[in-house]
Design goal:
With 424 residues, the chain is an alpha/beta fold. It folds into two domains: 203 residues, P-loop containing nucleotide triphosphate hydrolases (Rossmann fold), CATH 3.40.50; 154 residues, abc- transporter (atp binding component) like domain (Coagulation Factor XIII, Chain A, domain 1, Distorted Sandwich), CATH 2.70.50.60. Helices cover 25% and strands 33% of the residues. The protein has nine helices and 19 strands. The strands form four sheets. Strands 5-6-7-3-8-9 form a six-stranded mixed beta sheet, with helices on both faces. The chain has a five-stranded antiparallel beta sheet with strand order 10-11-13-16-19, with no helix packed on it. Strands 12-18-17-14-15 form a five-stranded mixed beta sheet, with helices on one face. The longest helix is centred in the middle third of the chain and has 16 residues.
């Protein structure tokens, strides 16, 4: 009997989170960290002794077990913070597990974040060669696939341009094309298609289907697009709070996942991360009475507030909100600058928020469940922060608004969009 190509045996990943409580530590930040850290250990001991710092253990993954057979396409789904990206980083050998064991029988290609493994100062041509070398391919193999990679990515005109000048779409296309054409035995894809356009997503799904059915390669695919998961994956793993909630046939797991999402609350909060230029901290829905609620009556006004941290001065921060139906179709998309171009000016370090207002009857949503995707960041795709899975339920209410164009439903338009730099 053929052994699984991937065996995951009881893996866990623990992080130590440091909390600093108040305190002003100056003396020019302890003399430039004592001339760049030779006595950092002593400094940390002092902070612990005087109560300015405490550490907390956080398990991003715990007791995760599963096998993947050669040629299988396996979906990995779960809410934000469920442990999906941590799992893929361990499988890619970017970070080691704290406990447990992984056996991988084959060469792994990873597409975990757009631009991972790319050097911004190198050209598209040079980065293709660099990625191939990272995957352990010989120059002859890279040259054989080179033209196919470039054609699929559609970057012929910009092949000799440094990738730091690429648009987000070009980054996505090249990154996926390299990963898909370098012929790894196992391909790990983590949510990067979420930022590509619909046409390119369709092209990528077709390519993934081709390399599994025709070439017999194995794919693990993280996505919040349940349509893509259902179309591509034979079985799916549902993660919840760092543990496997259920593994099974994709249609069953997707149904469980959607029902779990609906049960969640009206506000989603996320931890700070100072390593990111911008970091979403919360997404909250408010009803007509300005109360936080995920239940909105049909045609009644509501608001979506996105609060985020700016950790370094960045120009051109754009805040977008997307409403997605249960079939994972985008039914409404709007960006902050659509109504307020001045919002793209440089933001100060600190907490900011953008409020999207939906006046009564301004959008035509049928009764049912929708999910909010929030996207915040400057144009450079590596600086984006994206959260999904915040449920919005449109419930029973008045079927018509007689004062709105004779009771006819209006198209999906954002009538008002405000910017608020004060944390509320």
């Amino acid at each position: 009997m053929e052994k699984p190509i991937i065996e995951v045996k009881g893996i866990g990943k623990k992080y130590n989170i440091t909390h600093e409580r108040g305190g002003y530590i100056a003396l020019r930040d302890i003399l430039g960290n004592i001339i760049r850290n030779p006595f950092s250990f002593a400094k940390n001991k002092i902070k612990n002794a005087i109560g300015l710092e405490r550490k907390e253990e956080f398990w991003a993954l715990r007791n995760v077990n599963f096998n993947v057979k050669k040629g299988e396409v396996v979906g990995v789904i779960g809410a934000n913070g469920a442990g999906k990206s941590t799992l893929f980083k361990i499988l890619s050998q970017i970070t080691p597990p704290t406990e447990g064991e992984i056996v991988i029988r084959g060469r792994v290609g990873s597409l975990l974040e757009v631009g991972t493994g790319f050097h911004p100062e190198l050209t598209g041509r040079e980065n293709i060669s660099l990625n191939g070398a990272i995957l352990g391919m010989k120059h002859r193999e890279i040259a054989k696939r080179f033209d196919e990679i470039v054609e699929f990515a559609g970057i012929e005109k910009f092949l000799d341009t440094p990738v730091k000048y690429y648009s987000s779409g070009m980054y996505v296309r090249l990154a996926f094309s390299v990963a898909a054409h370098m012929e790894p035995d196992i391909l790990l894809i983590d949510e990067v298609l979420a930022v590509g356009d619909a046409e390119f997503q369709k092209k990528c799904l077709g390519k993934m289907d081709e390399i599994t059915k025709k070439e017999g390669r194995t794919i693990l695919f993280v996505s919040h697009n349940m349509g893509a998961i259902s179309q591509l994956c034979q079985k799916t793993i549902l993660l919840k709070d760092g543990r496997i909630f259920k593994i099974g046939e994709t249609s069953e797991i997707v149904s469980i996942y959607i029902n779990e999402r609906i049960k969640s609350g009206q506000s989603a909060e996320f931890p700070a991360d100072e390593t990111k230029k911008v970091k979403i901290r919360s997404v909250t829905i408010f009803d007509k009475d300005d109360k936080a609620s995920s239940l909105i009556k049909i045609f009644e006004p509501f608001k979506i507030k996105i609060t985020y941290d700016v950790n370094e001065k960045v120009r051109g921060i754009h805040v977008s909100v997307v409403l997605i139906d249960k079939g994972e179709n985008d039914v409404f998309v709007s960006g902050e600058s659509d109504a307020n171009p001045s919002a793209l000016k440089e933001k100060e370090i600190g907490s900011h928020s953008a409020i999207f207002k939906f006046p009564a009857g301004s959008i035509s949503l049928n009764r049912g469940v929708y999910f909010i995707k929030a996207i915040v960041g400057p144009p450079a795709i590596r600086s984006l922060d994206i959260v999904t899975d915040i449920p919005l339920t449109i419930t029973e209410g008045e079927d018509e608004y007689s004062n709105l164009d004779g009771g006819k439903r209006k198209g999906i338009i954002l009538l008002e969009n405000t910017w608020d730099s004060k944390e509320k």
